[in-house]
Design goal:
Layout: H1 3-14, H2 19-24, H3 27-34, H4 36-53, H5 55-58, H6 99-135, H7 137-151, H8 155-170, H9 172-190, H10 192-206, H11 210-217, H12 222-230, H13 235-258, H14 270-278, H15 287-314
Length: 321
C-alpha cells in the first residue's frame, strides 16, 4: 500500500461529519422531504413570520404613526375592487390606515404574544413537571392537585376575569400600555399544567433508568441530573406541545382582543383588527374583518399542520410514512 493510500484512509477515518451532514441523514429530515403538506406549511409560516417581523421595512406606511394617517382615506376597498385605489392593496380600515401595513404589524404582535406566552408556559411547566416527577412525594401530590384545579378552569375564563379586573382597577390608559405584557402573563400562566403533566409522566419513566442511577452514584446533584440528563430525553413531547400551544395562544389573544380585553386599537393585533371591523361588515366594508380573519386562520392552520406532522415524526408508533 502506497503512502498516498495510507494518508487517504487516515483522512477518511478521522473525518467527522458536521451537524448539517448528520441532520440531512436524520430520520427527521428524511420525513420532512417526503411530506408535501409539512413543506408547504413550513414555507407559508416562514413567509408570514418573515414578512411580519420585517414589517417596518415591507409595510408601505406605519399604522402606529398618527401623522401618516388620513381619516378621509377610511373604508377604501381593496385595489382590485371597483372603488379601490392602487396605493391601498388591501384597502383601509375605519381609521384610514393601510390594511396591508396594519396586518403586517398585527401579525407580528400576535406572533410575539404567542411565542412569549408559550415560552413562559414551557418554563413554568418544565420546572414544575421535572421537580414533581423527580422528587415525588407530597410535593408531587400538591403540584398535581394545583394543576388539576387550574385545568378545571378554562384559559379564556381566567383571562377574562384577570384582564377585566386589571382594566377596571387601573384604568384603560395604563392597560393599553401594558396590554402585551398582561396577555403574555395571563395566557402563559394559565396553560403551564399542559407541560407539567406531560413532563412529569416522562420523568417518572426516565428516572428509573440506569443512566440516572449512574449519575447519582457519581455524586451529581439533583438539578444537574434533572436538567442535563433527564430533560434532554423529554424534549420530543415538549416540541409537539409547543407547536399546538403557540396556535392556541394566538387564538386566545385574538379572542380576548375581539372581546375588547386584548391589544388596543392604536397597537392592533389580528384579533383587534377583526374586532374593530366587525361592526362595519354588514355596511359593505367586509375587508376590514374578513382579510385579517383569513390571515389568522391560515397562520393557525399551518402551525397546527406542522404540529401534527411533528407529533407523528417524533412518535414512531404513529408515523406511517
Amino acid at each position: 500500500m502506497s503512502q498516498a493510500d495510507t494518508i487517504g484512509q487516515a483522512a477518511q477515518v478521522t473525518h467527522v461529519p458536521g451537524r448539517w451532514e448528520r441532520f440531512k441523514k436524520s430520520n427527521f429530515w428524511y420525513n420532512f422531504t417526503k411530506d408535501k403538506v409539512a413543506q408547504i406549511s413550513f414555507v407559508i409560516l416562514i413567509l408570514m413570520a418573515g414578512a411580519a417581523f420585517l414589517s417596518p421595512v415591507l409595510a408601505p406606511t406605519n399604522p402606529y404613526d398618527l401623522v401618516s394617517i388620513d381619516i378621509m382615506d377610511s373604508e377604501i376597498p381593496p385595489s382590485w375592487a371597483e372603488e379601490g385605489e392602487e396605493r391601498f392593496l388591501l384597502g383601509t380600515d375605519n381609521q384610514g390606515r393601510d390594511l396591508f401595513s396594519t396586518i403586517l404589524y398585527g401579525t407580528r404582535t400576535s406572533l410575539i404574544i404567542g411565542f412569549c406566552a408559550v415560552m413562559l408556559q414551557m418554563f413554568l411547566g418544565v420546572c414544575i413537571g421535572l421537580s414533581s416527577g423527580y422528587f415525588g412525594g407530597r410535593f408531587d401530590s400538591f403540584m398535581m392537585r394545583m394543576a388539576d384545579i387550574q385545568l378545571s378552569f378554562s384559559t379564556m375564563m381566567v383571562a377574562i376575569i384577570v384582564l377585566a379586573v386589571f382594566q377596571a382597577s387601573f384604568g384603560a390608559e395604563l392597560y393599553s400600555e401594558l396590554a402585551m405584557l398582561m396577555l403574555i402573563l395571563v395566557i402563559g400562566i394559565a396553560e403551564w399544567p399542559q407541560y407539567a403533566r406531560t413532563i412529569r409522566a416522562s420523568v417518572l419513566a426516565e428516572k428509573k433508568k440506569e443512566y440516572v442511577e449512574a449519575a447519582r452514584v457519581m455524586g451529581f446533584g439533583s438539578g444537574r441530573i434533572m436538567f442535563r440528563h433527564i430533560l434532554p430525553n423529554c424534549l420530543s413531547p415538549i416540541l409537539v406541545i409547543s407547536t399546538v400551544q403557540i396556535a392556541n395562544a394566538i387564538i386566545s389573544e385574538a379572542a380576548l382582543s375581539f372581546l375588547g380585553l386584548g391589544m388596543p386599537v392604536s397597537k392592533p393585533s389580528l384579533g383587534s383588527l377583526i374586532s374593530s371591523g366587525f361592526e362595519y361588515i354588514f355596511s359593505g366594508s367586509w375587508w376590514i374583518t374578513v382579510i385579517p380573519g383569513i390571515v389568522l386562520v391560515v397562520l393557525v392552520l399551518v402551525i397546527n399542520l406542522l404540529g401534527d406532522w411533528l407529533r407523528d415524526v417524533l412518535n414512531p408508533k404513529l408515523y406511517k410514512g
